[in-house]
Specification:
- The protein has 387 residues and is of the alpha/beta class.
- The protein has a domain at 40-171 and 239-370: 3-Layer(aba) Sandwich (Alkaline Phosphatase, subunit A), CATH 3.40.720.10.
- Helix content is 36%, strand content 12%.
- The chain has 11 helices and 11 strands.
- The strands form 2 sheets. Strands 1, 2, 5, 6, 7, 8, 9, 10 and 11 form a 9-stranded mixed beta sheet that branches. It has a two-stranded antiparallel ribbon with strand order 3-4.
- Strand 3 (106-108) and strand 4 (117-119) form a beta hairpin.
- The structure holds zinc ion.
- Zinc ion (ZN) binds at residues 48, 91, 269, 272, 329.
- Residues 48, 91, 269, 272, 329 line the site of zinc ion.
Length: 387
């Protein structure tokens, strides 16, 4: 009986969709085209970095990026964030520019919850999963633990593809949602322990109003079960900060085999709190992370010779020698708009592109390399990057 009711209900919803006259998106169409293109690892060299500390040959704190990876493919030293009215050089904004190939393609949800942007245009995740039959656990976003606001990037609002084509998310926030659910389900807790875990879980759910829905797929749940076996429940054993993102990413490559993986590094941003050495040290830690990611790819038959890396910052930072901390990124200064990109892998040309390229070109370049169109992107694929 229950089954009959459900069938009739979905049938009715389908009819309603037809009656609405094709204005609705078509998420119910199962995509059957299997994906045979290259894997892509998109590394947000994030938290905002300046060219001076990253790609300046003499001054770089990321020698592996600058001296090894930049020579392995296409190096774009003059990527720029356009100076449009209303464009902010910041983390969520820059990340969404990379994912949508557009500027200002988001709406601000800060009224509801602090510091939230939600994409209003399709992201690369959605384009990819609507073009090919790729399960959600093979389209992954790896996020830092104190940025639950970026959990919103897995799919957007509006009349495009949406949740059906989302990526899945790996972050400590997600792990804690898994762990608290398991601890409560397993029982064996004292009243006091149970209350503490319930409080922790309630706190996690308030940080992200989408909460844990949609639930992670069984593959991602199994990933967390293995993570818990390695690192336990205390949170003291696992690496922290951007090293954690590297650990999650390398494990995900081994266990989930993502076709598209985005790693949202963020720690150079700690310079907001005033200590320049935190900034340069964080750049060096991302550089070490890049070595691990690239070594993991080069050693794995699934990724070796079949993976394109795209490494690029979310935004630059200011260069104000008079300020106490000379590199914030909220003053719309020229160097906050100045970024760069390194792209290498099969099908990618080798050399330096010695003219300005706009940040909105990154998404269409990834789309072209993977064989789909980011048709709402404002930019075009980077000339000379693709062979
Ligand atoms: Zn910042």
């Amino acid at each position: 009986m229950a089954r009959d009711v459900m069938d009739r209900r979905s049938f009715t919803l389908g009819m309603a969709g037809l009656a609405a006259g094709l204005t609705l998106p078509l998420p119910a169409l199962a995509q059957t085209k299997s994906y045979t293109g290259p894997n892509v690892v998109l590394v947000r060299f994030g938290g905002g970095v300046r060219r001076a500390e990253t790609i300046d040959v003499a001054a770089t704190w990321a020698p592996y990026l600058r001296h090894v990876l930049a020579k392995r493919g296409t190096f774009i030293p003059d990527l720029r964030i356009d100076k449009l009215e209303g464009v902010n050089t910041s983390h969520a904004e820059g990340t969404l520019n990379l994912l949508t190939g557009r500027y200002l393609a988001y709406r601000d949800l800060s009224e509801l919850v602090g510091d939230r942007l939600e994409p209003t245009e399709p992201t690369l995740f959605e384009y990819l999963r609507s073009a090919f039959d790729i399960p959600s656990h093979q389209v992954l976003l790896v996020n830092g633990e104190d940025r639950p606001q970026e959990e919103f990037f897995t799919f957007g609002a509006g009349d495009h593809f949406g949740v059906e084509y989302r990526s899945e998310m790996l972050s400590l926030h997600r792990y804690k949602l898994y762990r608290t659910a398991m601890q409560l389900a397993e029982g064996g807790l004292t009243d006091e322990q149970r209350l503490l875990i319930e409080e922790e879980r309630a706190g996690l759910l308030t940080q992200d109003p989408r909460g844990s829905s949609p639930d992670p797929s069984p593959d991602v749940t199994a990933f967390w079960a293995r993570w818990r076996q390695s690192y336990g429940d205390t949170g003291f054993k696992n690496p922290r900060g951007d090293r954690l993102l590297t650990e999650l990413s390398v494990r995900a490559m081994a266990e989930l085999k993502p076709r598209f993986l985005m790693v949202n590094y963020q720690d150079p941003d700690y310079v907001h709190w005033g200590n320049p050495s935190h900034y340069t040290r964080a750049i060096a830690i991302i550089d070490e992370g890049l070595q691990r990611l690239v070594s993991a790819a080069d050693a794995d038959p699934f990724y070796r010779d079949n993976t394109i890396f795209v490494i690029t910052p979310d935004c630059g930072r200011d260069a104000n020698p008079l300020a106490e901390v000379p590199f914030q990124h909220h003053f719309n200064s020229r160097s906050a708009h100045e970024v760069w990109a390194v792209i290498f892998g099969p099908g990618i040309g080798k050399g330096v592109i010695d003219k300005p390229v706009d940040q909105s070109a990154i998404a269409p370049t990834i789309a072209a390399a993977m064989g789909f169109a980011a048709h709402r992107a404002e930019g075009d694929a980077i000339e000379g990057a693709l062979l």
